[in-house]
Design brief:
alpha+beta; three-stranded mixed sheet; 92 residues; extended
């Protein structure tokens, strides 16, 4: 039996086929199922333990252009008040 690497399916269709698709992923017949909504991928289902930790450079194409300064925490708040913090989600 040949293993399919990926199956893409709309979330609405997934509702009716979810049990059989989960079984196929669990048994290794499908590598992963990608659920889509309006053509956009929103969820991916894979076997547990199947995903390898990423060893890729977090900057990708910018890896030669960006240098992290030791001691700088990129997750630290900037102290800037954002529009979203004030309840402004978009500008008309």
């Amino acid at each position: 039996m040949r293993k399919s690497s990926e199956t893409r399916i709309d979330v609405t269709e997934f509702v009716t086929k979810c049990l059989s698709l989960v079984d196929e992923v669990a048994e290794g017949r499908i590598g992963r199922v990608v659920l889509t909504r309006r053509g956009r991928a929103v969820v991916e289902i894979t076997r547990t333990g199947q995903a390898e930790p990423s060893t890729a450079d977090p900057w990708g194409a910018l890896s030669d252009m960006v240098q992290l300064v030791p001691g700088v925490d990129l997750t630290e708040p900037l102290g800037v008040e954002w529009d979203a913090d004030r309840g402004i989600l978009y500008h008309e």
